[in-house]
Write a structure and sequence with these properties.
Distance between the termini: 19 Å
Order of helices and strands: EEEEEEEEEHHHHHEE
Strand content: 25-35%
Helix content: 25-40%
Largest sheet: 6 strands, antiparallel
Number of strands: 11
Structural class: alpha+beta
């Protein structure tokens, strides 16, 4: 029997309170970054702001208000802007497990993208540090990513080099990512195919195996890339 017990479609979900820290350009918000294999979606629940995006097609800004649903594909550099200090979002991530396993690269200046150790030293938040120290590190890496992001906006010809550097940084993780994908989103799709095959054969037996599950956050207020996160174990 082919089954899948995670959230529908193998997605991940979290609650995000976007940082209200001002950056060098006067805007408040999160850390610009890019995902390499996962699409991301926002369901805005409170506040107002915007998501700035940078792709090979150029720069865009999408307004975010309560009720807005927005999403984008891998390769989209994105930066959340918190205009009123109260921007709250339910975040949906494709391929549950992959984003949590490092499927994101911050837009640090090129000198920090040369190898995984250099990048990790500039981005890792010490889990056992006091909250004030975690906040200091999270804010410092946000500011460093803003520096690199603003450079990419001013010099779009450097975007391809950033893509290449990001891909090189995560290459050592690809085998583990493939396993997570096979056990997650790919398994969810395979389970649907198996159910369709059974129904086509007149077999509705899988309906008797229905279950209900629920989760509460496994961690609250984590310092994420874009803000404080309440996260769930759903993979």
């Amino acid at each position: 029997m082919v089954t899948f017990e995670g959230l529908p479609g193998g997605v991940a979900v979290s609650h995000l309170s976007v940082y209200d820290w001002p950056a060098a350009d006067g805007l408040c918000g999160g850390t610009p970054h890019m995902h390499l294999t996962c699409s991301e979606g926002y369901v805005v629940t409170a506040g107002s702001g915007a998501v700035q995006t940078l792709t090979a097609s150029g720069f865009e800004q999408t307004p975010l208000d309560a009720g807005t649903v927005a999403w984008f594909t891998p390769g989209t550099i994105h930066r959340l802007v918190n205009e009123d200090g109260g921007l709250r979002i339910v975040v949906l991530m494709q391929n549950s497990g992959l984003p949590e396993a490092g499927d994101a690269v911050l837009t640090l200046p090129p000198a920090y993208l040369t190898d995984p150790d250099t990048y990790a030293a500039a981005t890792a938040i010490p889990a056992d540090a006091p909250e004030a120290e975690q906040e200091r590190v999270a804010r410092a890496r946000r500011d460093l990513a803003i520096e690199g992001y603003l450079r990419l906006r001013e010099e779009p010809k450097e975007l391809a080099a950033f893509h290449e550097a990001a891909a090189a940084l995560v290459r050592h993780r690809l085998d583990a990512w493939r396993t997570r994908w096979e056990q997650g989103a790919a398994a969810a799709s395979a389970a649907t195919g198996h159910q369709l095959d059974r129904l086509a054969d007149g077999d509705a037996g899988h309906l008797a195996d229905a279950v209900v599950r629920s989760e509460v956050p496994s961690a609250r207020g984590k310092f994420g890339m874009c803000g404080r996160l309440d996260v769930y174990r759903t993979d």
